[in-house]
Amino acid sequence: MTLQQITASDIAGWDSLQDIASSFEKRGLKPRPKLGGDNELVVQLDDDEFIVIVNAGPGETAADFKPENRSRHTNLVATNDFETFTFITRVRSWEGQQHGRIKHQKISFSKEQFTRDSGEKNTILQKLNSIEYGSSAAIYDTLYDTQQVVKEFYEQFEELRTDLIQEVTGIPDDRGDAKQRYVQVILDRMIFLYFIQEKRLLDRNPNYLHEQPNEVVDKGGDHYEEFYEPLFFEYLAEDKQNPDFGSLPYLNGGLFARNPVEEEFEDAKLGGSAEETNGLFDDILDFLSDWNWNVDERLDIVDPKNLSPAILGHIFEQTVNQKEMGAYYTPEEITGFMARRTIHPYLLDQLNEAVDTDYDEIDNVFGFPVPEADSSAEAVADGGTITQQVPTENVQTSHVETLYHDILKETHILDPAVGSGAFLLAAQEVLMDLYMQCIEYFQRLEAEGQG
């Protein structure tokens, strides 16, 4: 069969589930009319992978249709009026790993986007036409590729950074790249603060950076000298408290300690007057607030203007990998691999010795079968459950209890060459997967009357 391209006019004509399925048949996907439930059509993407096309009911959203079945990783959800469409995919576990938290990726587009000539429209079409029968990797590698989002953010970020460098005062022009490094650390701090603001960690206020400077600083005052400088170097870095600044986390130096440029040039700042300084910090906030900040690590949204933790990691890679500064960012794939290869064998050694057994994989502890040999495991999300489960009779409860109470809780990880902390963050993810798998196993036992 000769594959055909999905076109903008095809999408403009998506008024039924069959219309959508017909478009994907042009890409070689095979209809499976005997599969699926009410308001669903199923097309086969690969030997053991399917896309379920769903028409949401009134008031329902794509989040109501997260795919949990292992053989149906992706749903394509159309709103009730067939105006907006959302792919949502259950992200594959790390290779060979079945335990741990279930995560999803999501990308949305609308018919309205295809009524005008735009790069956004062309990007969506390119992603859709990367999908073809036998190439399920396109779902993960192309459909949810964040390259365009990272590129757009970084271009705007670089433009803002260039403008701010011209506004630095207190640093002589002949001091090499000192102005660039000063601006970079200011922007790094503001990006970090914006992220934890979205997490409600700044006085539980999602608008803290927009509102609090005006609460603390009198009209006409300097927002940097009277708000940001004490915020950075006293209340975040040194665990001091000030009721005017609200409830803040203690971040223990690092990003919020004075860097060498700030120590050498104590008068360095953005702008030559309070009015200029305040305006420049407003420019930074305007730039950051122009983006949608998704801080749920379990849902990676790849929509335009959307920043997720994964995308911020790629952006951080762009801004930090600078050989001349001796700074490097290690990608999540590498740190995750290193953390699993370091932590899992240690935990297995401890558990095998404690319970006198011979587990060779963490998955074995939770009763997961070899994927090709058995498909009895199911992913469940009811009531907040966010890990994959197997029948409880496949698991030695006492072994999970030993892992949780005696081993995980006594495990400490030290990284002497901590750098940016990427390995420790990856280690946290590895341990969190194990904690959640244990906790939800115990909850399942209780629900079955065995707890």
Radius of gyration: 25 Å
The poorly predicted ranges are 372-386
User: How many strands in all?
Assistant: 13
| Secondary-structure element string | HHEEEEEEHHHEHHHHEHEEEHHHEEHH
Shape: globular
Mean pLDDT metric: 83
Major sheet summary line: 7 strands, mixed
Q: Percent helix among the residues?
A: 40-55%
C-alpha termini separation: 55 Å
Structural class of the helix and strand makeup?
alpha/beta
What oligomeric assembly is this protein in?
single chain
Strand content is 5-15%
Work out the helix count: 15
Strand order of the largest sheet: 1-2-3-4-5-6-10
Q: How many discrete domains?
A: 3
Would you mind describing this structure in some detail?
The chain has helices spanning 8-12, 17-25, 119-128, 137-143, 147-165, 178-198, 208-216, 223-236, 260-264, 274-289, 309-320, 332-355, 362-365, 397-407, 422-447; strands at residues 30-31, 40-46, 49-55, 74-78, 84-90, 104-110, 168-169, 269-270, 292-293, 299-301, 306-307, 378-379, 388-389. Residues 372-386 have low confidence and may be disordered. The chain has a seven-stranded mixed sheet with strand order 1-2-3-4-5-6-10, covered by helices on one side. A two-stranded antiparallel ribbon has the order 7-8. β1 (30-31) and β2 form a beta hairpin. α12 crosses α14 (397-407), α12 crosses α15 and α14 crosses α15. The radius of gyration is 25 Å and the shape is globular. By secondary structure, it is of the alpha/beta class. The protein has three domains: 8-144; 148-324, no CATH class; 332-447, no CATH class.
